């Protein structure tokens, strides 16, 4: 059960399917995950509540 919840939060790169890695993003209250190969970037802003994708 818990493993399913964890895996739900683990986004993968749509290009190479590598697991995205977390990246610090200044003083903003948001989570940034990037592809380790630089294909993809996902920002999740707490204030907006909507993920922003950069492909
Ligand atoms: Zn990738």
Question: Globular, elongated, flat, extended or rod-shaped: what is the shape?
Answer: elongated
Category by helix and strand content: alpha+beta
Largest sheet: 4 strands, antiparallel
Instruction: Please report the number of helical segments.
Output: 1
Written as H for each helix and E for each strand, in order along the chain, the element string is HEEEE
Distance between the termini: 31 Å
Strand order, largest beta sheet = 1-2-3-4
Overall average residue pLDDT: 74
Into how many domains do the coordinates divide? 1
Q: Please give the radius of gyration in angstroms.
A: 12 Å
- According to DSSP, the number of beta strands is 4
The share of residues in extended strands comes to: 25-35%
Summarize the structure.
By secondary structure, the chain is α+β, with helices and mostly antiparallel strands.
3D architecture notes:
15% of the residues lie in helices and 31% in strands. By secondary structure, it is α+β, with helices and mostly antiparallel strands. The protein has one domain (2-54). It has a 4-stranded antiparallel β-sheet, with no helix packed on it. A hairpin with a 6-residue loop joins strand 1 and strand 2 (30-34). The site of zinc ion has 8 residues, from loops.
């Amino acid at each position: 059960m818990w493993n399913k919840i964890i895996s739900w939060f683990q986004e993968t790169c749509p290009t190479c399917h590598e697991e995205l890695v977390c990246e610090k993003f200044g003083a903003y209250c948001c989570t940034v995950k990037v592809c380790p190969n630089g294909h993809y970037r996902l920002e999740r802003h707490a204030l907006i509540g909507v993920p922003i994708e950069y492909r």
